[in-house]
Design a protein that fits this description.
The complex is a heterodimer. The longest helix of chain A has 32 residues, at 241-272. Chain A has helices at 7-10, 14-21, 28-51, 56-59, 62-78, 82-99, 103-120, 161-187, 190-195, 204-233, 241-272, 289-307; strands at residues 135-141, 146-148, 151-153, 156-160. The model of chain A is unreliable at 14-25 (pLDDT under 50). Chain A is built from twelve helices and four strands; from the N terminus they run H-H-H-H-H-H-H-E-E-E-E-H-H-H-H-H. Chain A is flat. In chain A, 67% of the residues lie in helices and 6% in strands. Chain A has a domain at 24-51 and 189-277. In chain A, the strands form two sheets. A two-stranded antiparallel sheet of chain A has the order 1-4. A two-stranded antiparallel sheet of chain A has the order 2-3. By secondary structure, chain A is mainly alpha-helical. By secondary structure, chain B is mostly helical. Chain B has a single domain, classed as Arp2/3 complex 21 kDa subunit ARPC3. Helix content of chain B is 68%, strand content 3%. Chain B is built from eleven helices and two strands. Chain B has helices spanning 7-13, 18-21, 32-57, 61-75, 93-100, 102-120, 128-150, 157-184, 186-189, 204-237, 243-246; strands at 79-82, 86-89. In chain B, a hairpin with a 3-residue loop joins strand 1 (79-82) and strand 2. In chain B, helix 3 packs across helix 7 (128-150), helix 5 (93-100) crosses helix 8 (157-184) and helix 7 packs antiparallel against helix 8 (157-184). Chain B is globular, with a radius of gyration of 18 Å. The model of chain B is unreliable at 1-20 and 248-254 (pLDDT under 50). Classes of the chains: A mainly alpha, B mainly alpha. At the A-B interface, helix 3, helix 5, helix 7, helix 8 and helix 10 of A face helix 1, helix 3, helix 4, strand 1 and helix 6 of B.
């Protein structure tokens, strides 16, 4: 059968050709980049969706939530007793219930972050090599203690009671910090939250940059996802790492150019609406008695925890 | 959007990037004696940066810096194969500093870090000052000065490629060592009366080698490669966009 396809469609792709001769390479970097872009968009979608609900915590003024967040994170960093940290964990859990969020969805994300930062990185501190103390569970015993570079390796390596206490405290602290931050993040619209930064003295100019950056990120994430899908659909088999790097260089340059175009368009849109270099952000709403009540409860709880 | 349902996959996949993510210090690792001064230092540096950038970038600075912030955030999404069979992503501060200048990079990267902390949980709230100081103040300036020291002739593309690589590589390694130093002093400055760690439990002898080695051998290479690739591409296609050369008056286009 005669092939009537135009010549440019019959030309083989560079990437495919190279795949047959490539020595080594892999495409997992593409999947990772696509997932990164997708996760970014999903996070933004989720936040917008959750913050739009009309439950108790969502209705609190963003400025009050910002002050509560800063205050509570500082309180958490000052509390050194595990029992007090556990009380904070329970309090935050109650706030999550009041916010009406999907606990599975939220805690899955929280526990993932806590697993990494509150356990995976920290657990070696429970060993006697890091935290000296009485070994309660032996892992390994050598014939004699030894010295490796600047490190002393004791004869027996195991978990100490003191080490486990250190890990437990840090685990709870990371859990509480991440949980409270997520509670505020998931229940507050980001643009409204950014406007509330005025309370802590950030200039309007800086807040406008954050707001614009946030919007650009969403737009560019979509562009990246589409670009990577297009790239992935055109690559087969193993590709040389050198080719991958060239492709990535081109792709990032393309994104950079798109960013510049976005910036130019935004600038012209701002000028056409009368922008003359002065930024004034308006607060989303006034603080009411419910906001004050919520803030007092959080402050009182924090003081109680600090002095218990 | 089907890809969005693969969130769990992305979370598991992200464990491969755990070590690089420790550059974003989470809450609970730094004592108030560390995060408060670092926040102060960052705030002071940002105030200077806002003034400098307003002067340099004129009235267009708002959308320009918003775009730069988004671009610095976006760069972190790009994974690249690095020697050893794994992939890595860049922090992006070096390439942003070379493309936009160190002061604009300071604002752009700090905005990106603030968005990361508040929307994606990458980096702690109390540690925002420390993270911004490390990656938005220290790193761009190190990268900028290394690049300016050796990469002042845009005609020599290969040399620029090498200098951009070194500037990305060294700036990340030095930033990792600074971060490790902040971790490592915690057992010294903030321990309980009985000597137990209250914050990061690893002292300098553990934190610095651990952070330095992995960044010297792995993540520094990813940072260097991404910096060099982008700079080479921009240099070949639109050299006027590189701020580091604009200062020399060779590619003035604004």
């Amino acid at each position: 059968m005669e092939n009537n396809l135009p010549a440019y469609l019959r030309q083989s792709e560079g990437g495919q050709q190279e795949g047959r001769h490539a020595k080594r390479g892999q495409l997992s970097f593409l999947n990772k980049s696509i997932v990164n872009a997708a996760v970014t968009m999903k996070s933004i979608y989720l936040q917008a969706e959750n913050s739009g609900r009309q439950n108790f915590f969502q209705r609190i003024h963003p400025g009050v939530k910002l002050l509560s967040l800063i205050y509570f994170e500082i309180v958490i960093s000052f509390v050194h007793r595990p029992i007090a940290q556990m009380l904070i964990t329970s309090f935050i859990f109650l706030l999550f219930l009041a916010a009406g969020l999907s606990l599975f969805l939220v805690y899955r994300r929280i526990l993932f972050l806590v697993f990494i930062f509150g356990f995976l990185i920290i657990w070696p501190a429970s060993l006697n090599m890091i935290t000296p103390g009485k070994i309660i569970f032996n892992l390994i015993c050598f014939s004699k203690p030894s010295q490796f570079w600047i490190y002393h390796i004791p004869q027996c390596i195991g978990f100490t009671a003191e080490g486990l206490q250190v890990v437990w405290l840090l685990f709870l602290r990371v859990l509480n910090s991440v949980s409270f931050a997520m509670l505020v993040v998931f229940t507050t619209s980001f643009p409204a939250f950014v406007k509330s930064f005025k309370i802590i003295g950030l200039p309007d100019t800086f807040l406008m940059i954050i707001t614009l950056g946030y919007k650009y990120i969403f737009i560019l994430s979509r562009t990246i996802e589409e670009a990577f899908f297009a790239l992935k659909s055109r690559l087969i088999g193993n590709i040389r790492n050198n080719t991958i790097r060239k492709l990535m260089g081109g792709l990032i340059f393309n994104i950079f150019k798109k960013s510049m175009t976005n910036y130019e368009n935004t600038w012209y849109a701002m000028v056409s609406r009368g922008y003359q270099g002065k930024i004034i952000l308006h607060s989303p709403k006034q603080v009411d008695s419910t906001d004050l009540f919520a803030f007092i409860v959080i402050v009182a709880f924090g003081i109680g925890i600090l002095f218990m | 959007m089907k890809i969005l349902s693969n969130f769990a996959f992305s979370e598991c996949d992200a464990t491969t990037d755990i070590i690089s993510e420790i550059m974003h210090i989470p809450d609970g690792y730094l004592s108030p004696q560390t995060y408060i001064p670092l926040f102060g230092a960052f705030a002071a540096a940002t105030a200077v940066a806002v003034r400098k950038v307003k002067k340099e970038v004129s009235v267009r600075n708002i959308p320009y810096l918003g775009m730069a912030a988004a671009f610095s955030f976006i760069i972190m999404m790009f994974n690249l194969p690095v020697p050893g069979g794994t992939t890595g992503h860049a922090v992006g501060s070096a390439v942003i500093a070379i493309l936009f200048g160190p002061w604009a990079a300071m604002i752009a990267v700090s905005v990106a870090l603030i968005i990361q902390a508040l929307v994606f949980g990458d980096g702690g709230i109390t540690a925002i000052g420390a993270n911004c100081f490390n990656m938005a103040v220290f790193m761009p300036f190190v990268a900028w000065y290394i690049f300016k020291l050796a990469g002042n002739n845009p005609v020599k593309t290969k040399r620029i490629f090498l200098v951009a690589f070194i500037s990305g590589y060294l700036s990340l390694v030095l930033t990792a060592i600074l971060t490790a130093f902040e971790f490592g002093i915690q057992p010294i400055i903030a321990s309980a009366a009985d000597g137990k760690a209250l914050y990061c439990p690893y002292d300098l002898s553990i934190a610095i080698p651990a952070m330095a080695i992995e960044h010297l051998l792995l993540f520094g290479i990813a940072e260097g490669m991404i910096t060099a690739l982008i700079i080479r591409y921009v240099l070949v296609n639109e050299p006027g966009l590189i701020h580091a050369f604009r200062k020399e008056g060779q590619y003035e286009n604004k």
